[in-house]
Write a structure and sequence with these properties.
Pfam families: adh_short_C2. It comes from Hyphomonas beringensis. This is 2,5-dichloro-2,5-cyclohexadiene-1,4-diol dehydrogenase. Helices cover 46% and strands 13% of the residues. With 291 residues, the chain is an alpha/beta fold. The protein folds into 2 domains: 249 residues, 3-Layer(aba) Sandwich (Rossmann fold); 30 residues, no CATH class. A 7-stranded parallel β-sheet has the order 3-2-1-4-5-6-7, sandwiched between helices. Helix 4 links the parallel strand 4 and strand 5. Helix 4 packs parallel to helix 5.
Amino acid sequence: MADLSGKVAIITGAASGIGLAGVETFVAAGARVVAGDIQDEKGHALQQRFGDDKVLFVHCDVTQMDQLEALMNQAVGHFGQLDILWNNAGHGGTPDSLEELDLDAYDQTMALLLKQVFAATKFAIPHMKEKGGSVINTSSISAITAGYAPLTYSVAKKGVAHFSKMAAAELAKYKIRVNAVLPGFIATSIFGASLGLPREQADQMAAMLVEAGASMQPIGRTGKSEDIAEMAAFLASDAAGFITGGEFVVDGGMTVGPRHSWDETAGGPLLDALGITPEQAEQMRDQMQAG
């Protein structure tokens, strides 16, 4: 486990999913955490669970710049410093295709997934520039390949990844490191929420996805929120002191290649084009060898 002893972290979207795992992982690693979220009931329960000497919940809608800036100030006011910022808040955004795109929904998606990452990092700089710090941004494997998420979400997440590289270059003079984490298929409520399900049902759907998603990845299991939290904790720690501007894929191998590259039962593009199954291809080979 990473060592975050003596550090103070802000995690947005901290009341559920990856953010909640982040709070649990960071506290276990020795950090004190300011948990920002709009889910007040869950957030207050989180603070009560750990105690306000370890976790402070702050209601924060990251699309509201005054709330986002206040989050930074409250971290320093309560814990005396700010060492780590994990920009994690988000949702699936508008599912519209380019042809049918609702431009207001586009603006809302970009405000939540991309603008707030710019803004939160900007607001954190004054609190980190004297002694350095670590900024971690949650991107997605949809930033590097098509087919995993809707258009606007994917483009926003590509922006998050490239922003991380650009910010790393600009903030290196302050010893502020900036990195992006690119999760793959992680069983969280974001999938149900993107379908318009109420929060409770979205949480239940996340539990169902744990089993359903196992066959989608070479590693043979669905990703857990803790998988992303552990990577973020490492990047936040001094052990990652020489790492900045990176894009860290945590996806169980989903992006290593098409299914036939890791699943020997899959046909591959040539067999698919010919309409031949792997079993039929094997039978054809046996017949040819038999003469």
